[in-house]
Amino acid sequence: MRRSVNLPRFIASRIRSRTERRSFSSTVTRIGIASIAIGLAVMMVAFAVLFGFQGTVREKLFSLSAHMKVTRYTLNQSYEETALPRYSRLSRSYKTLPDIAHFQMVAHKAGILQTDEAVQGVLLKGVGPDFNWKSFGQNLTEGRLPEFGKDTTDSKEILISRSIANQLQLKTGDKVTLIIMQYPPRPRRLTVTGIYDTGLEELDKQLIIGDLRLVQKLNKWGPDTVGGYEIFVKDFDRIDQAVGQVSKLLEHDQDLHSVVKEYRALFDWLGMLDRNLGVFLTLILFVACFNMVSILLVLIMERIPMIGLLKALGSPNWQIRKIFLWQAVSMILKGLLFGNILGVGLCLVQQYFRVIPLDPENYYMSYVPIDMHWEIVVMLNLATLLLVLLVLTIPTFVISRMKPVEAIRFSK
């Protein structure tokens, strides 16, 4: 049994093979392929940079400030915390909550770091053995992490930020005095074991990390008293559901704070980047579609005599239109292929070699971050293919208005 031939596809392949040897048609075709490739590559890089930027900022923020905080309900707006019991209904039952990944105890104390030459107001964050050092460790630039909980006495080791270290001219191993502003003043001699840098100036310029037991001693609290609970969720996109789960375990005098509400300006800014990206990608797709429509019209106008001949031989309009759609599909697929190679290649080069730097004072990071989501890459390919192909059906309607006699005479 002989296999039937797909006539539109066969004619399109013959036109394509001849087009490759003709200067004008080949140039136009290359322009169409290049427009698809560059548009797809730019969209892939834009998404990878956006996700990388948002993820890096969030990771830096969450390394110092948890997804949720629980404190004693109070109208006091100062840094001084009202004590919470270490053991409560929430601290005993948080493991039963499906969206909770980590739970830790902390306490804060305001004070002044003093050296022989300068002073700096700081906020001491006391942490214990349950602190999420894995998340915070990426911010460490010098020295080592402090060691808490190895003995029964409070540790005199602290971590300070790069901003504070520059302000006080401190380096790892230096001694510094922490003065607690109360009467009488209570100085503590501490050792700088490490220096961190998140790039988040609002936090870096004031936060130092020390032993939870040191804060407990300064506040005259017992070992079963803390300043608050910090909670991390498994999936940040489900933070609203996690807030609802935690709220059910709170006692009447406990208050829950979400990081989204606490740093509303930062998250609004990240959300604005999403909206700007949407406008940017819409413009890119519009330009790519416009280019392809123009190129297909040029190819149709160049083949007017062939269209007239096919119509004279009895070919229906839809069959002739398929010929040019097959040509368009070929250009789109080649454009997608080169676009994927270019886009993925640029992302991988930046991800592993970090060739494009950034000013950390303005962008919170020293290089352009990349976070590739392969499902987004697939979605962009499918969206580009379907959208451009749908738009390209418009110029093929010109074929329906051509008359065979006039089309054949066009070549004379």
TrEMBL record:
Domain MacB-like periplasmic core per the UniProt entry, residue ranges: 33-247
Any Pfam family matching the protein: FtsX
Any one biological process term the GO annotation gives: lipoprotein localization to outer membrane
Cell compartments where the protein resides: Cell membrane
Segments traversing the membrane: 31-53, 277-302, 323-353, 373-399
The family this protein is said to belong to: Belongs to the ABC-4 integral membrane protein family. LolC/E subfamily.
Protein name, as recorded: Lipoprotein-releasing system permease protein
